[in-house]
Amino acid sequence: MRALSGTTGPSSDFDFGGAPAPGEAALRPAGVLAAFDAADGRLLLTKRASSLRHHPGQIALPGGKVDPGDADETAAALREAHEEVGLDPARVEVLGTMPPHRTVTGFAMTPVLALVHGPFTPVPEAGEVEEVFTVPFAHVTDPANYHVEGRIWRGARRDYYVAPWGPYYIWGATARVLHSLAIRISARLSA
User: Would you say 112 and 94 are in contact if contact means Cβ atoms under 8 Å apart?
Assistant: First the structure.
């Protein structure tokens, strides 16, 4: 909870330079749910289906764009988590949000931090989610588990955070958001 009161600013896929960042007006609002099991602290993540047009096979936090029926980014994150993995919003205790993350795909993605209470058996949405898994709290919140890698994208080098865990390659916007959380927690623990 103390990490939510931290003062880190918004993060961006453009933090490492390279391609110019899009203007604020071009960004579409989205919400992602960083849902930690209240009993053991493990973070819920998904592996997107390999057949998807956008971000196939990537590791992601449940979530997506804000639809017209959503009150805000938190509502979008809860709705999407219910659709993608069958997480009942009644089991979710929303703790708060972190500053939006600007993605290369044109979203202002707001991370919604939450606890999941009681037992939960994920049900992956067919065609969208290939797998649902969890990662230990200690891995997610340790800044030492993150490092920078890069590749050529659209003719320019793009650098990004990665935080591999077992067979899972957590990178890009998901790793950047989790790295921001790890930095906030680390700063609060050392204060």
Answer: yes
Give the span between the Cα atoms of 77 and 62, in whole angstroms. 7
H/E element holding 137? helix 137-140
Rounded to 5, what percent of the chain is helix, strand, coil? Answer: 25, 35, 40
Handedness of CA 152, 53, 178, 20 (dihedral sign): positive
pLDDT digits (tens, 9 = 90+) for 158-176: 888 999 999 999 988 999 9
Locus of tokens 């609002």: 29
Q: Residue 191: is it exposed, middle or buried by C-beta count within 10 angstroms (0-12/13-18/19+)?
A: exposed
Cβ contact 62:86 at 8 Å: no
What is the separation of C-alpha 18 from the centre of its chain, rounded to a whole number of angstroms? 22
pTM of the entire structure? 0.87
